[in-house]
Design a protein that fits this description.
Blueprint lengths: L3 E2 L6 H4 L5 H4 L3 H11 L5 H15 L1 H12 L7 E2 L1 H10 L2 H19 L6 E3 L4 E9 L2 E5 L8 H14 L3 E6 L10 H10 L3 E4 L2 H10 L9 E3 L4 H10 L4 E2 L7 E6 L5 H12 L6 E6 L2 H15 L5 H10 L2 E4 L3 H11 L3 E5 L4 H4 L7 E4 L5 H6 L25 E9 L1 H17 L3 H12 L3
Parallel strand pairs: 1-12, 5-6, 5-8, 6-7, 8-9, 10-11, 10-13, 11-12, 13-14
Antiparallel strand pairs: 2-7, 3-4, 4-15
Helix pairs in contact: 4-5, 4-10, 4-11, 6-9, 7-8, 7-9, 8-9, 10-11, 12-13, 18-19
Length: about 450
């Protein structure tokens, strides 16, 4: 069920990235769904553009109509009252409620340790510095569908609250039968202490938060992962609002040697593969014995899992085991792949951490398995995918603040610098700039 590639060259099929899969690999069933909803064949980009334009023009009525057409959910209003969050929280099993609360505490404690440095200096002729200011309002998208993710709400909302964001708005899809979001997600909203929750999914949620409607306030930044239409919508509203990143399906690369437990390695691969048929789960190892044992374990364990069909599609499409000449090659290939999660299941994992530049998160040793990062370790699990770990990092406190430069030069420094400013301005043919600088040096044009 999972293929062993005999060398990195043979494994290039799964180690070579294309463009972001959620946007460029569109299943026929999705295209058929678009044609059904819109009455004509459209690309995802064209369909999302139409939704965004309609929400921008008509506000709430567009949200109500498109939610009915896309999701089959009839709603009279999109905001979920706070009392419903509390009911959902109180109805949870006590053990699950406690687990969510402990997760929130660890996420809060982790991010509270992240420095948010304001600084000034008087050593450059006056006062220069930077002030980090929390955003006023952020919008957090939380996926729903077949696997609601209350953990994603905690992972986005808690760091935002630590950063000092004034208002946190959450959008998450409603269930077709109840017309409400998942009770788990509502309970997480209560635990995280967000401000408002709206029953909106996908591109409609992004549009509402980006433009604002009669019910949904306009936000300064949209944060959170989602499916194809969420990702396309985020791409199209960038510049109107800020974004944390564009996310594709989840991905894990495990680097393992002979010391690794094949039962645990297989379990870690399966945990990622069950997310999505487009999810990526790859093992890189120099050990053929481990590769064979993991392959056998994957087959054995899959039979007991409730999402076996998704796992099988994921492993067949993007997953695999790649045999490498040595451990150093395995680490190098993992770094080049720039995965969301990079797991070091090796005898001396700390020795390899310094060799890795590109990963959303590094999981050091088999006791730091990736599922703990999904829920309770502390760092946010909203991490870069699709190779974007080459230039982007996980959601963190700095995603929810902005830098304001402080310039307060003294008169002597200003006069000294004005001549240089005027010279550069003249070279750029900006005569008004040059004149404004010269006024400070000679008092005349």
């Amino acid at each position: 069920m999972i293929t062993i590639y005999d060398n990195p060259t043979a494994g290039a099929r799964i180690l070579t990235r294309r463009t972001m899969r959620t946007v460029d690999d569109v299943p026929e069933v999705v295209l058929a769904s678009i044609a059904r909803v819109f009455g004509e064949p459209l690309t995802p980009e064209a369909a999302v553009a139409r939704l965004l334009a309609d929400v921008r023009a008509r506000g709430d009525p567009a949200l109500f109509e498109w939610t009915k057409r896309i999701d089959g959910v009839t709603i009279a209003g999109v905001e979920i009252p706070r009392a419903a969050w509390e009911v959902a929280y109180e109805s949870l099993d006590l053990a699950l409620r406690s687990a969510l609360e402990r997760s929130a505490v660890r996420i809060r404690d982790f991010h509270a340790r992240q420095p948010i440095p304001n600084w000034t200096t008087g050593e450059m002729g006056g006062t220069l510095g930077q002030r980090l200011v929390p955003l006023e309002r952020i919008g957090l998208y939380v996926p729903g569908g077949s696997a609601p993710l209350p953990s994603s709400l905690l992972m986005g909302a808690v760091p935002a609250r630590v950063a000092g964001v004034d208002e946190i708005v959450v959008c998450t899809p409603a269930d077709r039968e109840s017309g409400l979001p998942s009770p788990l997600t509502l309970a997480a909203a209560y635990v995280a202490g967000v401000d408002r929750v709206f029953a909106l999914g996908g591109a409609l949620a992004v549009a509402a938060m980006a433009f604002g409607t009669e019910s949904v306030p306009r936000v300064d930044k949209v944060v959170g992962a989602g499916g194809l239409f969420t990702t396309v919508a985020k791409r199209q509203v960038y510049g109107i609002v800020g974004l944390d990143g564009l996310y594709g399906p989840t991905e894990t690369v495990v680097v393992a040697d002979d010391s690794a437990d094949p039962v645990w390695v297989a379990a870690d691969l399966l945990a990622q593969a069950e997310h999505d048929a487009l999810a990526t789960a790859i093992l890189l190892t120099p050990s053929r014995a481990l590769a064979e044992a993991v392959r056998a374990e994957v087959t054995r364990q899959t039979g007991a899992l409730n999402r076996a069909n998704i796992i099988e599609a994921s492993l067949a499409g993007q997953g695999g085991i790649v045999l490498t000449p040595d451990l150093a090659t395995a680490v190098r290939l993992a770094d080049q792949f720039a995965p969301e999660h990079l797991c070091l299941s090796v005898a001396e994992p700390e020795a390899w951490v310094g060799s890795i530049r590109n990963a959303g998160g590094i999981f050091i040793g088999e006791h730091s398995f990736e599922v703990l990062g999904d829920y309770v370790a502390g760092p946010s699990h909203i991490m870069p995918t699709g190779g974007t770990a080459r230039f982007n990092g996980p959601v963190n406190v700095l995603d929810f603040v902005k830098v304001i430069n402080i310039i307060g030069l003294d008169a002597e420094t200003a006069r000294t610098l004005a001549a240089d400013a005027a010279m550069i301005a003249s070279a750029e043919s900006l005569s008004a700039h040059a004149a404004a600088a010269r006024q400070r040096t000679v008092g005349e044009l």
